[in-house]
Amino acid sequence: MVRAYLYLAAFIPLTFLFSVSAIVSTLFDSNGRFYAWHARLWGRVGLALSGVTVTLSGLEHLPDGPVIFMSNHQSNFDILSLLAAMPRQFYWIAKKELFEIPVFGSSMRRGGYIPLDRGDGRKALQSMNEAAAVIHQGKSVVLFPEGTRTPDGNLLPFKRGGFILARKAAVPVIPVTINGSGKINPAGRIRLYSGTIRITLHPPVVVAAELRRSEAEAWIMENVRSRIESALEL
Predict the structure, then answer these.
(1) Could you read off the pLDDT of 174-193 as tens digits, one per residue?
(2) Beta carbons of 111 and 18 less than 8 angstroms apart
(3) Which DSSP state fits 181?
(4) Residue 197 CB neighbours (<10 A)
(5) Chain segment 103-161, per-residue pLDDT in tens
(6) 23: left (phi over 0), alpha (psi -120 to 50) or beta
């Protein structure tokens, strides 16, 4: 517990400084590369402070062009590890509550990240339309289809929104399995342990053109879930 509080005492001010610097970078950088650099460095410094390392496998499955990354969600360290390790610039689809955090939320908005209101279906659909527009500009996005952290490592039921987005955007979906983060920082607990987070990229899921709308969403969901589960270590 003491270790976690010491970490937060360093990480929170660091996050504030990175957020301010990232906001300033958006004034001079229209393509978001400096912002992405800030985000990646923030993730790597955050991991280094905690004594956590990250490995990444499956890069051979990553196609050219924009994709949708869909990952399981065990811990807050999932965000840091994806930012630190993924080889491609991407944009988050994240719960709107994060955008309400002073300075940090403003930074996310300036960085082009997309808030998701899970309590309002109409607003959630609007967020998916915004994300589809981002993808059609040639950019990749990442989301957690469970919508929240799992308490025991098992996959929670998937929310439908990400699969509506996959159908609308019509780009490959890359399932991502994260292992180890739940042991480093258990969901809902102020505990912190050192260790290794392992990220696995799976072959892309591409929807069959002949499927109808509801069939396409269900087909993508089933295939994404089975591929994430195939590498899950419990």
Answers:
(1) 999 999 999 999 887 888 99
(2) no
(3) H
(4) 27
(5) 999 999 999 999 988 777 778 888 888 899 999 999 999 999 999 999 988 999 999 88
(6) alpha
Residues whose CB is less than 8 angstroms from the CB of residue 104 and which lie 6 or more positions away in sequence, other chains included: 15, 16, 19, 98
Domain boundaries defined on the chain: 2-230
Looking only at the bridges linking them, the beta strands covering 195-201 and 52-57 are parallel
Residue carrying the six token digits 């959630």: 124
**How many C-beta atoms surround the C-beta of residue 67 within 10 A?**
25
Exposure string of 93-108, with b = 16+ CB inside 10 Å and e = fewer, is: bbbbeebeeeebbbbb
CATH number of 2-230: 3.40.1130.10
What's the whole-model pTM score? 0.94
Paired residues of 92 in beta bridges: 142
Find the mean pLDDT for residues 22-36.
91
